[in-house]
Amino acid sequence: MDRVLVAVLALLLAGCASASKPLAQAALNGDTATVQALLAQGARVNGRGPAGITPLMLASQRGHTETVGALLEAKADVNASRGKPEDGRTALIDAAWGGHTEIVRLLLSRGADANARAESGATALTGAALQGFAVIVDLLLAKGADPNLKAADGRTPLMEAAKEGHTAVVEALLRTGAEVNATNAAGVTALMLAAFGGHADAVTRLLASGADVNVRSRAGATALKAATAKGHTGVAELLRFVGANE
How far apart are CA 54 and CA 27, in angstroms? Predict the structure, then answer.
């Protein structure tokens, strides 16, 4: 046992530190050996630090797969969510937003709720779609993630993927029932966002799935106006070809 581990255990046994703080630090650092030793000495696996963050959340956020596995073996609450002033995020949401594929897979296999929502309305699927993590998107959808859950401002995972031009994610979401003409609070659609970004492939996939080329936002914007305003002539020509109006 190394000297750092001996020192931490000595503090615990002497009552000079709480069981949760050293465990949280070890989880944050991905120090699996220390995590296991602290748990063996009675550290609370679901002990919470500031903002209600648990060791599992910390390890998941940082991408420490082995540490996450050790915490889960010790019965960490896979669906615990953060308290205020944080926003109710779970370990799965943290892992998905961070692109930690194997941790997402592990958490889902242990019963993580694929539709858990932060207070902002953000989900694991929202984050994976926004950043183009196609494998994570597939994992979440396979576990029943709802492709139509909206954030507080009405954004859907499809909108996030379309905005960034993540065509593979757009296709996966459409295959699993994403509403192609859903609008956010401003009346903006995924097609408008894809057109604004000049993402021709995403625009093509959305049109093939029935996207309404002439729907207007509350401000009167259309997909064609969005493409034209940003100088995306190829996308504008495509939209005109399928009947878009100015």
Answer: 9
Looking at this protein, which amino acid is placed at residue 153? D
Cβ burial of 5 (10 Å; 0-12, 13-18, 19+) is middle
φ, ψ dihedrals at 174, nearest 5°: -65, -40
Angle 98-103-108 from CA coordinates, rounded to 5° = 115
Residue 243 backbone phi and psi in degrees, to 5? 100, 15
Residues 6+ apart with CB under 8 A from 66: 30, 32
How much is the average pLDDT of 94-107?
A: 98
pLDDT in tens, 151-185: 989 999 999 999 999 999 999 999 999 999 999 99
Instruction: List the domain boundaries for the chain.
Output: 1-132, 147-246
**Reduced to 3 DSSP states, what percent helix, strand and coil does the chain have, rounded to the nearest 5?**
55, 0, 45
Residues 45, 76 contacting (CB under 8 angstroms): yes
What amino acid occupies position 242?
V
Q: Return the CATH superfamily for domain 147-246.
A: Ankyrin repeat-containing domain (1.25.40.20)
The two structure tokens encoding residue 155: 């954004």
Alpha carbon 32 to its chain centroid, in Å, reads 25
